[in-house]
Description:
Blueprint: H1 3-23, E1 28-32, H2 35-45, E2 52-55, H3 58-66, E3 72-73, E4 80-83, E5 97-101, H4 114-118, E6 122-125, H5 128-136, E7 142-144, H6 151-154, H7 160-170, E8 178-183, H8 193-196, H9 200-206, E9 208-213, H10 219-226, E10 231-233, H11 240-245, E11 248-251, H12 256-262, E12 267-269
Parallel strand pairs: 1-2, 1-4, 2-3, 4-5, 5-6, 6-7, 8-9, 8-11, 9-10, 11-12
Amino acid sequence: MIPAYYLIKWPYRLGCRVADRFRGRPALAVYCTGPLDRVVLLPVMRHLPPALWVSGNGRTARHLRSEGLAAVRYPVFPRVVIMARHAQYRFPDTGVFKVGFRHGAYHFKQFAGTAYYNAFDLYFMTSRADVEAGRKRGIRSARSAGFPKLDPAFDGTWNRETLMPYAGRAGLLPGRPTVLMTATWDRSGMSAVGRWLPVLPRLAAAMNVMVTVHPFTSRSCLKSLSGTPGVFLIREADTLPYLMLSDVVVGDTSSILAEACALNKPMVTFRVPQARRSL
Length: 279
């Protein structure tokens, strides 16, 4: 467990006891560390009782409120907490039932440490194959649940009419093929962004080009992408509408490729060097 766990463990447990005695505790909370967490978990929460949305920082709190969610800042002391990150250490009390979801649909990397998964009471992975792979590594908390982030692609939320504003925002020209370029973090050792970034101007001259990259992507890389004429850099956390608008997806080890598979999108991928967490 990371050092922060041991720093907050006893103060947090004391907070739980105080809340039990004087204030009561919320039945269910959703913990978000960034905008993507809301996108991943919102389809889940539509099937559950009303929950308290909790942010780990001010930026996320402002984002949640801009989306109409009455968010509060951590700490809170719920009976059950749901999250899409390995942030269970922020709720270090056995009286808090901790539920985790993956924020990417498939893994092209080794699992994080087994202890991070087993610290959850229940951890949902995207497939039975993932669960079996996890069990071979000693992960006991995993169950298969699919990838709820994709639900809006199949439940009627996104259709020709609702996607039109996104096509306009991206500046997609009728009659041109549309390519979605994707990449994981450029300094991860597993990214192919350097392979295709130099040819973006040529691609943009012949087709609609949209780009989405990992949130940790370096500023220098983002500057190059945003400064390329004819290229639309997606800055929203929810990339699904743009993925649905694409004709072909280019990627590396980014988990968005699994979403492209689910939507039956043609893909072009690159071989990348072996890195510390490569499978």
